[in-house]
Amino acid sequence: MPGAFPERIVCLTEETTETLYLLGEERRIVGISGYTVRPPRARREKPRVSHSSAPRNDAILALRPDLVLGFSDLQADMRAILRESGLT
Hints:
By secondary structure, the chain is an alpha/beta fold. 34% of the residues lie in helices and 19% in strands. It has helices at 14-22, 40-45, 57-62, 76-84, and strands spanning 9-11, 29-33, 48-51, 54-55, 67-69. Helix 2 links the parallel strand 2 (29-33) and strand 3 (48-51). The longest helix is centred in the N-terminal third of the chain and has 9 residues, at 14-22.
C-alpha cells in the first residue's frame, strides 16, 4: 500500500539512524544528525542537518521529510519549530 509508511525520514539522533540502517531501511533516510558516527557509512551517504539542539531548519525543510525522528525533551525546542513548519 503506497504511502502507508514514511518514505523521507530525517534522523536527528544517531540511534534512529543506526536502527534504520540495521533494519535495511537506510534508503528512507534523507538527513542525519551531525553527531552521527554509526554506522560509519551514514556520514558518507547522508546530509547532516543538525547538531544536537541546533537544527538547520532550512536544510531539514528542503529535504521535504514526511517524518522527523528526534529524542525526547532534549530536543523540545527543535521539535516545536519543526512542528510549526508542518512536519511530523
